[in-house]
Amino acid sequence: MTITFITGANKGLGYETARRLIEAGQTVLVGARDAERGQTAADRLGGRFVPIDVADDESVARAARDIETHEGHIDVLINNAGILGSHAPTEELSGTDAIEIFNTNVAGIVRVTHAFVPLLRLAEHPAVVNVSSGMGSLALTHDPDRVESKPIAPLYTATKAAVTMLTTQYAKGLPDIRVNAADPGYTATDFNGHSGHQTVTEGTDAIVTLATESPDAGTGRFIDRFGPVRW
Ligand SMILES: NC(=O)c1ccc[n+]([C@@H]2O[C@H](COP(=O)([O-])OP(=O)(O)OC[C@H]3O[C@@H](n4cnc5c(N)ncnc54)[C@H](OP(=O)(O)O)[C@@H]3O)[C@@H](O)[C@H]2O)c1
Q1: In the chain, which end has fewer C-beta atoms inside a 10 angstrom radius, N or C?
Q2: Distance CA 122, CA 102 (A)
Q3: How many CA atoms lie within 13 A of 103 on its CB side?
Q4: Residue 71 C-alpha to ligand 1 middle, in angstroms?
């Protein structure tokens, strides 16, 4: 049975991904930084709660030890946890704002992947799914026909551009592990005050595809629910 670990799975896209993968027969480890929110979500989903704050080295190392003890390995890692960061006008964005969002959205993925590669390597067909965004695509944010060209969010978009680049570079650096990125599309969650036009089920299509596709589907790709995304 496939064992999948999802960060930030207590709500939004992470929660819906967990729900769908459990429905598909996977064992899902529900990662969350808050014990009460995480346990409540795991109980509702029928998964096991694993405490993890992706912004904290020790917390990530503890999560890896927890899973090593209980499950022994994972087949799929879904790096989903992310924040929008400061809403300040562009000229007021500070170094502290940048460090906070990069620590979660980018260093968080490096931290978690570093801790979990040994457990992934025990799987027959290991896979990493990074939840990126079309907001991190240079092509889409410059295409006036795309919704991604409208918002101005220098730090968030820069973190997601980094997530996509991390994905293609990790795919090259870890040839024994399938490493791909998903763009959920603009989806109604707490992240955007539920202004997104997609449902969470539509928003998790690409993530679920990457977490369930055949082992020879390829690595270093960036897809949304309709297919490949321009970088
Ligand atoms: N919604 C969209 O339109 C959209 C579009 C493109 C990409 N995305 C990406 O999709 C991912 C999920 O977003 P969402 O829309 O589902 O947002 P959400 O509803 O706000 O959920 C975000 C999740 O990440 C968790 N999280 C944040 N910081 C964390 C940390 N340091 N350690 C562990 N967990 C942490 C949150 O936990 P708490 O409950 O404890 O805060 C929550 O579970 C993000 O990476 C986001 O950038 C979203």
Answers
A1: N
A2: 29
A3: 12
A4: 25
Reduce the DSSP state of residue 201 to 3 states and report it: helix
Burial class from Cβ neighbours inside 10 Å (0-12, 13-18, 19+) for residue 202 reads middle
Closest Cα to residue 78, out of 32, 39, 137, 40? 32
Calculate the alpha carbon distances from 81 to 14, 149, 215 in Å. Answer: 8, 23, 24
Q: Is the pTM of this model over 0.85?
A: yes
Q: Which two tokens stand for residue 210?
A: 């990457």
Q: What type of residue sits at position 3? A: I
Ligand 1 atom nearest the C-alpha of 196 is 3
d(CA 16, CA 60): 22
> Which atom of ligand 1 lies at the shortest distance from residue 187's CA?
3
The pLDDT tens digits for 44-77 are: 999 999 999 999 999 999 999 999 999 999 999 9
| Residue 83 CA, ligand 1 centroid: distance in Å | 6
Q: Which residue has the tokens 């819906």?
A: 16
The CA 224 to ligand 1 mean position distance, Å, reads 17
DSSP string, 77-141: EEE----------GGG--HHHHHHHHHHHTHHHHHHHHHHHHHHTTSSS-EEEEE--GGG-TTGG
Tokens, residue 157: 């978009």
pLDDT digits 0-9 by tens, 182-230 = 999 999 999 999 999 999 999 999 999 999 999 999 999 999 999 999 9
Report which of 37, 14, 31 is spatially closest to residue 184, judged by C-alpha positions.
Answer: 14
